[in-house]
């Protein structure tokens, strides 16, 4: 009898194993299909509901499918079963980061660091979270703890955001010594030089990028802006021609329109503002800009229509309020409405007072009256 029972158990053993949690777990590890992996890990969990590793592996599969809510639920279960394992907190933090949920990610990474304070990637990921939440000094503190991974660019970016341009420049130049074609290092050196008004140097860095990548949009936009600052408007137009070919968006047309304005090519500017409005009909800025060009061309009816539209879309935009005040003075010598809109602009933080007295800027809109004591006394309380 014992002999037959032994033989029976031998024959039964494979069947029993085939139904075990370990069996389903091992089968899942061999499976290529993410969905089948999940199904097999689910069967393993059904057989062994407290098996933390099975939850962790199923969470990994959910993460690859970008089913982040499910992944977080499973990582949380894994943490509950192994609360002293730092890598489980780390795994959940990475999912939070993928979602852009940086606060809970930082909490998990801080917990991971408290459990294992010599693992550099914990500090690196937390530094990245700090960077995303504008906590640049905290990011720098964490990056100083990372020795085996090159963090020069992240450190340089943190210094840049803190307006600490000298240490940022030093780090970026070190990067370029190793790789003269590093696009990000060149871009940030260009930005630094733009910010400190070294526009020729900035243009040089952006041009180096464009020699490597002629269609780099960031470099084209940044170089166009630097050209604008030194009044090289033809060069601005060339860069925006390229940008529009690459990506014909309303912002690009609007900025090229401004460059045409600076060249006093009002019809060309209007065409670009037409296109910007066509692409973004709810954006107030190109309506205001087009109104200004219409006033320059003495097309006052069209100008008033655009100013009304711009004010409906952005009632507190100071430049539109100034242009509207100028419209009432230039076309009607209507002091009441002129002062009404001028006051509204000043209350809404219009700061470019010098332009109101300069005929090459906004001054022509207020010609003659801007020379009066009345006008200057009216604006004086806001000019502080």
Folded structure, characterized:
This protein is mainly alpha-helical. The protein has 22 helices and no strands. Among the domains are: 150-247, Alpha Horseshoe (Serine Threonine Protein Phosphatase 5, Tetratricopeptide repeat); 252-305, Serine Threonine Protein Phosphatase 5, Tetratricopeptide repeat (Alpha Horseshoe); 316-384, no CATH class. Helix content is 74%, strand content 0%. Helix 13 (199-212) runs antiparallel to helix 14, helix 17 (266-279) packs antiparallel against helix 18 (284-296) and helix 19 packs antiparallel against helix 20 (318-332). The longest helix is centred in the N-terminal third of the chain and has 17 residues, at 2-18. The termini are far apart.
How are the SSEs placed, and which strands pair?
Elements: H1 2-18, H2 21-30, H3 34-47, H4 52-64, H5 68-81, H6 86-99, H7 102-115, H8 120-132, H9 136-143, H10 152-161, H11 165-178, H12 183-195, H13 199-212, H14 217-229, H15 233-246, H16 250-262, H17 266-279, H18 284-296, H19 300-313, H20 318-332, H21 335-347, H22 373-379
Helix pairs in contact: 2-3, 3-4, 4-5, 5-6, 6-7, 7-8, 8-9, 9-10, 10-11, 11-12, 12-13, 12-14, 13-14, 14-15, 15-16, 16-17, 16-18, 17-18, 18-19, 18-20, 19-20, 20-21
């Amino acid at each position: 009898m014992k002999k037959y029972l032994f033989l029976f158990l031998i024959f039964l053993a494979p069947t029993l194993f085939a139904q075990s949690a370990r069996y389903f777990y091992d089968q899942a590890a061999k499976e290529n299909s993410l969905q089948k992996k999940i199904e097999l890990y689910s069967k393993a969990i059904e057989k062994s509901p407290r098996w933390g590793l099975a939850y962790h592996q199923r969470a990994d599969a959910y993460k690859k499918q970008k089913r982040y809510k499910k992944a977080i639920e499973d990582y949380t279960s894994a943490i509950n079963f192994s609360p002293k394992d730092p890598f489980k907190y780390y795994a959940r933090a990475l999912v939070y980061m993928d979602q852009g949920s940086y606060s809970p990610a930082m909490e998990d990474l801080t917990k991971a660091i408290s459990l294992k304070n010599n693992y550099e990637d914990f500090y690196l990921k937390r530094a990245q979270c700090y960077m995303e939440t504008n906590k640049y000094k905290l990011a720098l503190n964490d990056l100083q703890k990372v020795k085996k991974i090159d963090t020069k660019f992240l450190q340089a970016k943190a210094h840049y955001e803190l307006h600490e341009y000298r240490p940022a420049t030093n780090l970026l130049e070190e990067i370029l010594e190793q790789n003269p074609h590093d696009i990000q290092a060149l871009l940030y050196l260009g930005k630094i030089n733009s910010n400190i008004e070294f526009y020729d140097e900035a243009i040089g860095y952006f041009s180096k990028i464009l020699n490597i990548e002629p269609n780099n949009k960031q470099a084209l936009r940044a170089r166009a802006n630097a050209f604008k600052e030194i009044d090289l408007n033809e060069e601005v137009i060339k860069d925006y021609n390229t940008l529009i070919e690459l990506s014909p968006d309303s912002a690009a047309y609007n900025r090229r329109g401004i460059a045409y304005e600076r060249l006093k090519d009002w019809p060309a500017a209007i065409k670009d503002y037409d296109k910007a409005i066509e692409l973004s009909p709810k954006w107030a800025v190109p309506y205001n800009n087009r109104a200004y060009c219409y006033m320059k061309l003495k097309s006052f009816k069209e100008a008033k229509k655009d100013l009304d539209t711009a004010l409906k879309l952005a009632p507190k935009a100071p430049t539109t309020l100034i242009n509207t005040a100028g419209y009432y003075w230039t076309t009607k010598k209507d002091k009441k409405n002129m002062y009404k809109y001028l006051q509204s602009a000043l209350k809404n933080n219009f700061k470019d007072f010098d332009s109101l007295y300069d005929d090459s800027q906004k001054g022509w809109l207020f010609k003659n009256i801007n020379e009066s004591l009345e006008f200057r006394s009216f604006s004086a309380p806001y000019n502080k």
